[in-house]
C-alpha cells in the first residue's frame, strides 16, 4: 500500500496552494501568530472537530460552514487567543475575521474556514488581527508552508510538517499537512490542530469519510494527558489540481488516496505525541488479537494513556504489570490467561503469565530509544517519530488490530502545568 | 439524615466482631501483612469488585462464594503479594488459604472471603501464610480493629478507619470500616480495599443493593491516577447482633442504615484519595444542575481526574479554564453559556463567561487548604479529610447532583512511579 514517497514543501507541496505565516501581534511573545492556507480554486473541504461541550467559536463556525457547503478557498488560523468561552462577542469576532479575509481576497466569506489556539476566555486582539490580514495575504506564496507551520504553534517545541507524493493515472498526486499541539498551559494553551492539503480530485462525501476514518486511526489515537481541548480541529482540502479523474467511490485509487491520507495524519499525530509536554520519548502501543479494530484501538489508547505506565517509561522501568492492568480496564473483553505482552524485542508476559526476561537490557532499550528520539540540527532540537518505544499486546480474542501513540510522564509535565500562575 | 455519631473502635465497634493484624512474613519489610475480620455468627455479606479483565484469584473466589451463599464468617486479607497474574497456581493458593483459616476456626470454608494486595505476578509466600494462620486466629480480639487496619496497607502513608453509631428501635446500631489504597508501586502495589462491619439486621438483597449504591457514591467516585487495580474489593458484613428487627425493604430505617453506610464508604474513599501517591491535598468536586445524578457524578469524576487540573491545584493555580475544559469532555450534555464554576468561595465563571476575581486570594485558598490537610500527632503525620479543596460546578441543565474526590498531581507522584526499578 505504501507506494508513495516523501517530498519537501509541506502544505504547499500539492499543486494550487499558497500559504503564509506572519506576526500580527496576537501573541505577547512576538512570535508568528497568524497563518493562511489558500487554494487557488474551490477545494473540497472535510473536517473533524472536538466533541467537547465547551468549545470555541471557530469550531461552531466551521461546522456550520461545512454543513452549508463542503468546499473552501482558505483556512485562517490564529495563535495567541483560543476564542473559547468568549460568548456572543467571540462568535461575532469569528464572523468578522472571516469577513476581513474574504474582502481582502475578494471571495465569498463562506469560503473561509477558521481555527484558533491560545488562551481560553480572552477576546482575540481584533485590531491587530484586522491590521495583519493584508500583510498575511501579501505574504502568501507557493513556498509558504513552513511559515504557516510556524505560525500555528503555541508551546510546541518543534513545528510539524510533512508532504507525500503518489501516482494516480500516471500523474503525481500530492498531499501536505501541518499540525500543532503539545498540551495546555499558559494558562490554557489548548488545542490540537491539523491541516491537510491535497491536489487529488475526489468527491465531497468520500473525502469526508476518508478523513473521519483517518482521524480515528491517528489524531483520535494520541493522548498526552487525556484532556480534550476546546478547539481541536482537523481540516483537509482537496482541490483537484492534479487533474486526475475524480474519485467518487471506493476502489484501488481511493484506497491509495486514503492510505496516504492516513499516513499523513498518523505522522502529524505522532509528532504531536512526541512533542507532549515534558515528554522524553514517543510511545507506540500496538494491539492485536482483539474482537474488532475499534476494540484494539481502545485498548491501545487506554494503555498509552495510563499515568502509571507513562511514569514507568519515564523511569526506564519495563513494568509489564502496569501494561496488563491498563489493558484489563479498557472495557474490551479478553481472557487474561491468553494475554501476551512485548516491549521492543522483550517478551514480558505470555499466556497471562509473567516471564523471566533480561531486565537491565529491557531498561536499556527504553533508555536508548528515549536518547535517540531527539537530535540537534543547526542549533535546534528536532524530534524523530519513526523509532518509538514499542509495546505490543496480543489479547488472543480475535483478529482486530490497532495502534495508539503517546509519551512518557515526566517531572517536567508537572512543572510546566503546575508552575504557571504562582 | 445524619443522625449518627462517630465512635471509636473501627471495624470492631459493632457487636459480635473480632479482628486481628499480624506479621506473617509476606512483606519483605517485616511490617504487618495478614489481617482477619471475624463475625461470631453468620453475617449477611455483600461485595463490590473490580470490573477489570485482568484480576486477582481472590476476586474470582469472592464472586463465586457470594453467588453460592451471601453470608460469611470471616474475611482474610493479606498484603505483600496480590495473587494476580498467577494462573492456576494462584487459584489453588486462594482455595488453600481459605481452607487453612476455616480449619483453624472450625467453620465451613465457604464462609471465608479473601482479599489480597501487593505485587502482581508473584506467588504468595504460602508457607509463611500457613504458619501465620494460628497466630492470626489467636490474636483476634474485640479491640483488634486498628491492628487489622494496619495489616492491610501497602504504600499508604496512614491507616484508614472509622466507626459510626445510630439508633434503630431505640437500640444502638453500629458500623465500622477500614480501607487501603494509594496507587500502584513496587512495582505493582495495586488495589483499593474496603471492609465494612455492621451489627444491623438486614436482608441479603437489600444489603447488597445498599452497598452497590454506596459504592457508586464513594469508592467509584475517587481517582488517584485513573488506573483500575486488579484486586479492588469492597465487602460489607451485617451480622444482626444489634438485635433490632430485620430490615427487609426500603423505608425510614433502611434509609437511615443506607445513609450511614454511604457515609462510612465516603469517609474511607476520601481517606484513600487524600493518601494518593504524592498528594498534598484532598479535592472535592461538587456538580449540580446535571440531567441526572449519574451524569453529575461523571462530570465530577472527569474533572477531578484531569491531569491538567490536578497539576494546577498542586501549583495553587486557580485555573478555571481547565475545570471548564474537563467538564466539557465528560460526555454529559449542557449549554456552555450556562456554566458556573466556583473554587471555594471564589466565583470564577458564570453564564459561561470568565469573571474577574481576586487571583492571589484564590491561590492562597489552595495553599492554605493544602497546608491544613495534614498534621502531626504523636510524631506521626495524619491526614484530614473533612476540609478539602472544593470545586463547585453548576451545569444549568437539570437537577442532578453528585460529587467526586481526588488529589493533586505532584512531582512526587512521578518520582514514586518512575524510580522504582531503575
Question: How does this model look, in words?
Answer:
- Two copies of one chain form a homodimer.
- In chain A, helix 7 (293-304) packs across helix 9.
- Chain A has helices at 57-68, 87-105, 126-139, 145-151, 204-216, 252-274, 293-304, 307-314, 320-328, 359-372, 411-418, and strands at 5-6, 17-22, 34-49, 71-81, 112-119, 160-168, 171-180, 193-198, 222-223, 233-238, 282-290, 340-343, 346-350, 353-354, 374-377, 380-383, 389-394, 400-407.
- Helices cover 33% and strands 28% of the residues of chain A.
- Chain A is α+β, with helices and mostly antiparallel strands and 422 residues long.
- In chain A, strands 1, 2, 3, 4, 5, 6, 7, 8 and 10 form a nine-stranded mixed sheet that branches. A seven-stranded mixed sheet of chain A has the order 9-18-11-17-12-13-14, sandwiched between helices.
- Mean pLDDT of chain A is 91; it is low at 184-189.
- Chains A and B meet through helix 8, helix 9, strand 14 and helix 11 of A and helix 8, helix 9, strand 14 and helix 11 of B.
Amino acid at each position: 500500500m505504501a507506494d508513495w514517497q516523501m517530498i519537501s514543501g509541506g502544505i504547499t507541496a500539492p499543486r494550487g496552494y499558497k500559504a503564509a505565516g506572519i506576526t500580527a501581534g496576537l501573541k505577547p511573545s512576538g512570535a508568528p501568530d497568524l497563518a493562511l492556507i489558500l487554494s487557488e480554486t474551490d477545494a473540497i473541504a472535510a473536517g473533524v472537530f472536538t466533541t467537547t461541550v465547551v468549545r470555541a467559536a471557530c469550531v461552531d463556525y466551521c461546522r456550520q460552514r461545512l454543513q452549508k457547503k463542503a468546499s473552501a478557498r482558505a483556512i485562517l488560523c490564529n495563535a495567541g487567543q483560543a476564542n473559547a468561552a468568549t460568548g456572543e462577542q467571540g462568535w461575532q469576532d469569528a464572523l468578522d475575521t472571516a469577513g476581513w479575509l474574504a474582502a481582502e481576497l475578494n471571495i465569498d466569506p463562506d469560503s473561509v474556514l477558521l481555527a484558533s489556539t491560545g488562551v481560553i476566555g480572552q477576546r482575540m486582539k481584533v485590531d491587530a488581527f484586522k491590521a495583519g490580514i493584508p500583510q498575511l495575504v501579501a505574504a502568501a506564496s507557493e513556498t509558504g508552508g513552513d511559515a504557516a507551520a510556524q505560525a500555528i504553534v503555541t508551546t510546541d517545541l518543534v513545528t510539524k510538517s510533512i508532504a507525500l507524493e503518489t501516482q494516480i493515472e500516471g500523474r503525481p498526486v500530492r498531499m501536505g499537512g501541518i499540525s500543532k499541539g503539545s498540551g495546555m498551559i499558559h494558562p490554557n494553551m489548548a488545542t490540537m490542530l491539523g491541516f491537510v492539503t491535497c491536489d487529488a480530485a475526489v468527491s465531497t462525501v468520500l473525502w469526508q469519510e476518508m478523513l473521519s476514518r483517518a482521524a480515528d486511526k491517528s489524531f483520535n489515537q494520541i493522548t498526552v494527558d487525556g484532556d480534550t481541548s476546546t478547539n481541536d480541529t482537523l481540516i483537509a482540502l482537496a482541490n483537484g489540481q492534479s487533474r486526475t479523474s475524480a474519485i467518487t467511490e471506493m476502489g484501488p485509487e481511493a484506497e491509495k488516496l486514503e492510505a496516504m491520507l492516513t499516513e499523513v495524519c498518523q505522522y502529524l499525530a505522532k509528532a504531536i505525541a512526541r512533542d507532549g509536554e515534558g515528554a522524553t520519548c514517543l510511545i507506540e502501543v500496538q494491539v492485536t488479537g482483539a474482537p474488532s479494530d475499534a476494540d484494539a484501538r481502545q485498548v491501545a489508547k487506554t494503555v498509552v494513556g495510563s499515568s502509571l505506565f507513562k511514569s514507568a517509561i519515564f523511569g526506564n522501568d519495563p513494568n509489564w504489570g502496569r501494561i496488563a492492568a491498563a489493558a484489563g480496564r479498557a472495557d474490551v473483553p479478553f481472557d487474561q490467561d491468553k494475554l501476551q505482552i512485548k516491549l521492543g524485542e522483550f517478551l514480558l508476559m505470555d499466556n497471562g503469565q509473567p516471564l523471566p526476561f533480561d531486565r537491565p537490557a529491557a531498561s536499556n532499550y527504553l533508555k536508548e530509544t528515549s536518547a535517540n528520539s531527539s537530535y540537534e540540527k543547526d542549533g535546534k532540537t528536532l524530534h524523530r517519530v519513526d523509532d518509538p518505544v514499542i509495546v505490543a499486546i496480543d489479547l488472543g480474542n480475535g483478529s482486530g488490530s490497532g495502534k495508539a501513540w503517546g509519551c512518557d510522564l515526566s517531572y517536567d509535565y508537572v512543572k510546566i502545568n503546575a508552575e504557571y500562575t504562582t
